[in-house]
Amino acid sequence: MKTQVAIIGGGPSGLLLSQLLHTKGIESIVLERKTKNYVLGRIRAGVLERGFVELMREASASERMDAESYVHDGTQVSFGETMFRIDFDKHAGHPVIVYGQTEVTRDLYEAREKANGKIEFNVEDVVINDAKSDAPYLTYTVDGEDRRLDCDFVAGCDGFHGVSRQTIPTEVRREYEKVYPFGWLGILSETPPVNHELIYSGSERGFALCSMRNENLSRYYIQCSLDDNPEDWSDDAFWDELKRRIPKEAADKLVTGPSIEKSIAPLRSFVTEPMRWGNLFLCGDAAHIVPPTGAKGLNTAASDIHYLYNGLREFYESGSREGINAYSEKALARVWKAERFSWWFSSLMHRFPDQSEFDLKMQIAEIEFLRTNEAAQRAMAENYVGLPY
Ligand code: APR
Ligand code: PHB
Questions:
Q1: Spacing of C-alpha 362 from chain mean position
Q2: What is the structure's pLDDT at 107?
Q3: Is 389 a known active-site residue?
Q4: What's the CATH number of domain 180-266+350-385, 3.40.50.12280, 3.40.710.10, 3.30.9.10, 3.10.180.10?
Q5: CATH class of the domain whose range is 5-71+97-177+268-345
Q6: Is there a catalytic annotation at residue 200?
Q7: Is the pTM of this model over 0.85?
Q8: Whether the CB of 123 sits within 6 Å of ligand 1
Q9: Which of 13, 228, 297, 373 could form a disulfide with 284, with the two C-beta atoms 3.0–4.6 Å apart?
Q10: Which pLDDT does position 45 carry in this prediction?
């Protein structure tokens, strides 16, 4: 088989790129290791920057998001007995959109299917060949049958555990990583959200986050030990701990119920440089990971896709390689800003097992500065709603 852009990975990054390319008549084929239902079974975050929303609209995949998403003009931040609001409209001039990433992925699959997009599932043993040449090709198997896909370009949208990043020789790759000494235990419950906006809460017992998907589907997280397993936590134990970590006024009105999903995610900051090797381009989690505190995972994948899509579009429309040649440097410039914000917010809101009394005083001072200083609130708001592409 032959296509113009071979995309490895049928998560939000790969699907969004494929759909955007389609709108400009550029052919692509998506190779996905799992089944569609498996991909749609993943529960991920739910805060979208304006840039992501605009890309979904450009991809003609935003109808349900536009109809069902929530507009959030701010968020609550609490630390011990202190609680205050960061006003996105006042400090950054626009809101964020709350809409589950699972729904984003579902919408993108529907858009690809409606456009008769080519997606292969249950793909195994993908190998990227001749990425440095003008005629790269993928080899892979489906149900034991060997296949080959010739292409002009390869988009590695295959996440942190994919094959794309590993294809770049170790002597070329530079990797930067910070692993946090705790995880997030998250649950979904068919209960009304405790608050109309998110609550990010730092407490002496650890971090907690109150979020939502719709008026009867809530998403809650508590910082937990990396030694924990979801089955170690009964629903009652989770709710009791969450109530201890959020402001009393919220705890008193929290509506609890059975969890319909319960999982633990580790927290990591990670970047690989460069994000391009020949005609292989890394996008999204294949190139970088952020702790979920700043909700930057999908939103940073979005800017990668924006840069790569426009570079490829420029190439096919004019023959110019200027955009694709600038891809890695341009994408990394924004990736590192998202990494910084996610690291800053994670370092501020969590309790670290080995932190000193001085470290705690620094967190308290930073929170007080954020609560009382307009410039500090503007910096947080501008980063949270999304820095420009
Ligand atoms: N071959 C084919 N597909 C693969 C391979 C492989 N070797 N390895 C991984 N995949 C698939 C995975 O099954 C997954 O569906 O690639 C996809 C990668 O999707 P994500 O991990 O969701 O990464 P990405 O699309 O970049 O998502 C960016 O959105 O999903 C959220 O929070 C997540 O921050 C992340 C963001
Ligand atoms: C979520 O709704 O799952 C969510 C929201 C904000 C975050 C992380 C996760 O920072």
A1: 28
A2: 98
A3: no
A4: 3.30.9.10
A5: alpha beta
A6: yes
A7: yes
A8: yes
A9: 13
A10: 87
Which of 193, 188, 196, 246 is closest to 72 using CA atoms?
196
pLDDT in the model for residue 149:
98
- 104 Cα: distance to centroid of ligand 2 (angstroms): 14
Average pLDDT score over residue span 29-48: 95
- The residue to mutate among 285, 296, 300, having the most atoms of ligand 1 within 8 angstroms of its beta carbon, is 285
CA 242/CA 184 separation, integer angstroms: 12
CB 283 within 8 A of CB 305: yes
Kindly report, residue by residue over 194-225, the tens digit of the pLDDT: 999 999 999 999 999 999 999 999 999 999 99
Say what angle helices 357-372 and 327-349 make with each other, to 10 degrees.
110
- pLDDT class for 175, splitting at 50, 70, 90? very high
pLDDT single digits (tens) 88-112: 999 999 999 999 999 999 999 999 9
Give me 350's structure tokens: 């969590």
Q: Domain spans of the chain?
A: 5-71+97-177+268-345, 180-266+350-385
- Using 50, 70 and 90 to split pLDDT, how confident is the model at 82? confident
* 44 pocket-lining for ligand 1 (C-beta < 6 Å): yes
Q: Is 295 in the pocket of ligand 2 (CB under 6 A)?
A: yes
Q: How far apart are CA 6 and CA 150, in angstroms?
A: 8
Catalytic residue of the set 22, 296, 330, 350:
296
For ligand 1, say whether the CB of 323 is within 6 Å of any of its atoms: no
296 is catalytic: yes
CA 252 to centroid of ligand 2, rounded, Å: 22
Residue nearest to atom 4 of ligand 2 (CA): 45
pLDDT reported for residue 279? 98
Cis amide bond preceding 247, omega within 30: no
